[in-house]
Amino acid sequence: MSLDNKQILVTGGAGFIGSNLALQLQEHYPNSKIVVLDKFRGNERLSNGSSPSLGHYKNLIGFTGEVVYGDITNKEDIVKLELQYNFDIIYHLAAISDTTAQEQDLILETNLNSFYHIIGLALSHKAQLVYASSAATYGSVKAPQVVGVEEPLNVYGYSKLMMDHIAKKYYNKGINIIGLRFFNVYGAREFFKGKSASTILQFGLQFLEGKSPKLFKGSSEIYRDFVYIKDVVNCCIHAGEKEVSGVYNVGTGIARTFEAVYHTVRKNLSLEVDPDYIENKFTKQYQFFTQADITSTQNDLGYYPKYTLEDGIKDYISEIKKIFEDEF
Q1: Would residue 246 be called left, alpha or beta, if left means φ above 0 and alpha means ψ between -120 and 50 degrees?
Q2: What is the largest CA-CA distance in the chain?
Q3: What is the mean pLDDT of residues 129-134?
Q4: Residue of 75, 186, 235, 248 with fewest CB within 10 Å of its CB?
Q5: Is the peptide bond before 305 cis (omega within 30 degrees of 0)?
């Protein structure tokens, strides 16, 4: 299915992945109507100090489509969309995505219950539905992680796993539903995620401030599948074009250590600063080795990541410098 001349909704479109996707869709499909729905950030805070909404208007500078303020937990906001538009494709990326958040009630209301609203909208419009799942569904299961073997360690991961279960019930109801399990995504427009932004950005800003980047003790034994935002957006677009249903991993298929991230960022900034090793206080709900099995993602969605960790950081480094100049 071509994405040209379509009405496309991106929920959470002022967030990290959502804003990158909206801008990419705008660039490559100028004849399509792109609508962004976002709650945007306010003064509300979770118990850990984070904002439940990470949407920020600055992420959408340059976006010329329609922007709608709305809350996915408010059925009336979704009904307004249902009556005003006729979407062909829905990218559902809105969520509380902080893995350290403890508010089970709010997270399940926002991520899980509201998913029924989005599915209802997709059914009403007979729209292709692509939604954000997460590698947090896997918890500490052995790498490489494969869809079907999950053990979430936090309520965020649990909420995403339940969304995957709900989606399966609608696979044969006249629409295609694709869940994308994003691994450790990094890249432009993640700054407003705050402390949940990638270690690539955090290390870069710490370097530029003249501070020692903070690494957990034993970081040479902590592995992550770091995937660049440009690859993630391309996968989202591929998913919107495919007439299949299922849950798919979105990573590189290669795990790298935090030590490797530190050395790669330092090399690209040409700065000699030793790291500051700290204790990891999140060990009970911490993933020590993530690596996506992307076999089905390649076969069904035609997704082949182009950026290695080195390539992605090299491409991202000018943006990190700009963030430092603008925000510090």
Answers
A1: left
A2: 57
A3: 98
A4: 75
A5: no
Compute φ and ψ for 177, nearest 5 degrees.
-130, 125
How far is 151 from 139, CA to CA, in rounded Å? 5
Residue 256 forms beta bridges with which residues? 224
Condensed to tens digits (0 to 9), the pLDDT of residues 19-73 reads 999 999 999 999 999 999 999 999 999 999 989 999 999 999 999 999 999 999 9
Alpha helices in the chain (DSSP H): 16-28, 75-84, 104-107, 114-125, 155-168, 199-208, 229-241, 258-269, 295-301, 309-327
The amino acid sitting at 41 is: R
Distances (CA, A) of 264 to 29, 150, 280, 306: 35, 31, 22, 18
* Torsion-angle region of 263 (φ positive above 0: left; ψ -120 to 50: alpha; else: beta): alpha
In angstroms, rounded to a whole number, what is the distance separating the alpha carbons of residues 108 and 182? 19
Q: Are 72 and 119 in contact (CB under 8 A)?
A: no
Q: Which tokens belong to 68?
A: 């709608």
* Spatial CB neighbours of 17, under 8 Å, sequence gap ≥ 6: 93, 132, 182, 185, 229, 232, 233, 236
Alpha-carbon span 8 to 68, nearest angstrom = 13
The residue with tokens 């692509």 is 130
pTM above 0.85, yes or no: yes
pLDDT exceeds cutoff 80 at 284: no
The CATH number of the structural domain formed by 7-327 is: 3.40.50.720
Q: Which of 127, 231, 249 lies closest to 176, judged by CA?
A: 127
